[in-house]
Amino acid sequence: MALTLKGMTKTLGYEKPAQEWDEALPIGNGRIGAMVFGDPRQELLMLNEDTLWSGEPADTNNHDALPHLAHCRQLIAEGKYWEAQQVAETHMLGTDTEAYQPLGELRIDVDGVSPGSTPRAYARTLDLARAVHNVSYEEEGVAFTRETFVSAPEQVLAVRLTASRPGALGFTATLGSPHPAERGRDAGDAWIRGRAPITIVPEVAYAPGRGIAFQAAVRIADTDGTTETLEDGAIRVSGASRATLLLSAGTSFAGYDTDPAEGPDPAARCRQDLEDASRFAYDTLLERHVAEYCAYFDRTDLTLGADGSDDAAALPVDERLRRLGQGEEDAGLAELYFHYAKYLLISSSRPGTQAANLQGIWNRHLTPPWRSNYTVNINTQMNYWPAEPLGLHELAEPLFDLIGELSEKGRETARIHYGARGWTSHHNTDLWRRSNPVEGSASWALWPMSAGWLCRHLWERYLFGGDRTELAERSYPIMKEAARFALDWLIPDEHGRLVTSPASTPENLFLDEEGRKCALSAGTTMDLSILSELLQSVLDASLELGVDEAWRPELQDAVSRIEPYRIGSQGQLLEWSEEFEEESPGHRHFSHLYGMYPGEQIDLYRTPERAKAVRRSLELRLAAGSGHTGWSCAWLVSLWARLGNGDEAHRYVRQLLAKSTYPNMLDAHPPFQIDGNFGGVAGIAEMLLQSHAGELRLLPALPSAWPCGRARGLRARGGYVVDLTWNGGEWTEASIAAARDGHCVLRLAGGKIAVTDLESNAVPVETEGGRLIFLAVAGQTYKLTKVTEV
Asked: I need a surface site. Which of 250, 486, 492, 631 has the fewest CB within 10 A?
């Protein structure tokens, strides 16, 4: 039963247990998460529940901020940037967010077969195609297995332990928590309950009867051995050959605006979930879990190579990563990374759960890095970049729920902080949907642009899916109110152009004439990119829906007076409205390149001069050492893909894997942040198919390292699903399935293309400016064939 991975291209495999958290493997159902270590003798599962956060509802806005806004703007207009920053940081910021919390741990202490016996032939795997973690080993001629997954249909974590010899299996399961907690037993169940901290600001603090209450409970649902619940709350199984352990978890969270002290009793949920799950035999539990999971996972597929079976795929993942770091080729590792990111998104974000945070749903710290919150100046958005192109759009529902709730809290922030209509939010939020600028440097805190960026996701949903009802009833009202804030926030400069002030560019600094580090100026490129895009999308949505006709001239006027892009002395796209000296030329953010990706205001074909300036900006920043963090490296993949440079995009896929990936394949910021995983797979998808600028581009950035391969189920704006096969660096077969009627526009890379429907009937096409256009009909699939000239 030693590790065997030959042909298992969707499996993470290891030859030893995890010793550190960054070696453990994540499992989850969007709500309940666990990191599984896989030790034969003492299995450790570190547990999370997605609504367990510190804090409670509170007004965290700064009611003294507004009187200082005019003064701050005046100082900026006078070029006194450092002085403006002092005003902002002294008077205009607020309190920090609360933090995502660990729930606890489940330990399973497994008996040895005999005193002094030693496990051998050990293997640990995570099957991405089924979302099942497995441990196997032999001991004294007995084969042991341990299968673990988290069920979405039944909302429980299940562990199935087996031994090949009757009576050879014995273990003790114990729950623990880093929070003050009570252990107990109830009939055959063991449980632990407690409360999260009332705050972690400025330090971890608990308060009796306040904060989010939690409970976790375990039950042995099936065994042929003897079970007893011990006085300390542990469960003991002995003399068995099989046992199924179920774990349930819940909290008292009842909404971002509800006191959790008045929320539901988590014990009731735990009991009910265990009762419901216990009605199923283990095989049925597993079957239901796999079927529900595969309905998401199987929508897309990717093979990089002729048959996906290169020799490296048979090696443990940590060894493959080590070899890649030493310069060896391993195209299958990028393929595995693609599937792993799908797995992580399905496991950390489901309809009805909370959105995936900085660590997805997996966190072990009471005071986690960056509070494991929602950092909405890129990281939260990056988490959901792959949702639409990989056909996992339902998994973005938690993000849309967050945006809707944040828009409610953001109305108060817009009014209190800025005297503005509509809603705004800054660079951080949490379970309580705090929308105020947090404490700290204005370079990150005073940035009221995240609402506009988040609205990009609402508009993207419509561009991909075309649901007019959803646009009218959910998305447009939120976008409209964000646009109202934008119109109030924009002010004219001395030339009559609209700019933002105070404006920052996350999380960068420039030097003033005296060499002081400054964050605030007027009209940064990212600010104006986001707001011009927001206003244009609201204008487009208004036209689509036939509403707010009287308001359109104001939107059109504002769009016409915003000039986001200026080119500097080195041919680069400027980050600020002036060519300031950069404090950090190799900064990890590429904020000023937002218009290239994820936006679409800059395009390789429509705006070639701007695209050239983007390329120059990348060259300068990379020469100064940028791209050194995981998510930053992931962003580079998509930027180079949009520039049509597959080999440069691939360079950063390799770097992401070789330098910014832990042994468990989670992203290393460092420390762990999950956004790099999601941003990386979005970049790989962008290398294979692009659908911005009103057209489809097939293999627009295919690297020489992937000369042949297959992709299935990639989703495109306009309502298309695309399958591709390529060989020798060019696509050989392609099909486009249309979900709605419309003119399908393809960018041609040379040669002629014939288009037929499923019955092989020729479809009328026309060409225009290097593009092929045909009328697509909803429900029809079209085959594309390259015409060979004779």
From this structure: 492
